[in-house]
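Figure 2 data, in text form.
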Amino acid sequence: MKQPTGFSGIGYPGCLCQGDAIEKAHGILIRKTPLTETSLIVHWCTAEHGIIRTVARGARRPASPFAGKLDLFYSAELEWVPAKRSDLHTLREVAVTDFRHGLQATWPRVLCASYFVRLLESVAEPGTPLESLHDLLSRGLDYLTTRDPTRKAVLHFERELARDLGIHGEPGVSPIAALRPMISRIPDQRETLLKSLPEL
């Protein structure tokens, strides 16, 4: 069957029907989980659409057009077809803009990046634009691409997150304490991360 002009077919099951909307955004891949033996559910943090969930059909096949493009903390230009009855959209195309190879160099970098992501997820409303938080996460991950985390860097991220959310704690109150009313549970990675880092 001939595909419509301009449609590459990457990850999309079948023909793009006339009238189907296509959304585009720049996103950071923050989570991925198996859906079937061949497909993945991929979570993205985007500035325009907030946190979105997409299904990458066939992504686990060796010859998939998605091969090498869907790894944690990658930044990419993405296209998806919005779901009509759920929040799980169909991923159509991905073009990686930043692989952040250096971030995988050490375990503390990966652990810190995971903490940043989980903390952001805990305060983000699904589908709500996250322009400032997307920028904060991008800067945090870029930092970890070239150097190992420090306690100062972790506290700075928490402070900036609280500030972007309009939370101003009392004098002497730590940023994470000020954030507590907004999150049901502090991500487990925080305790492990801080134990692995030298004191200030």
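Caption note: The longest strand covers residues 23-34.
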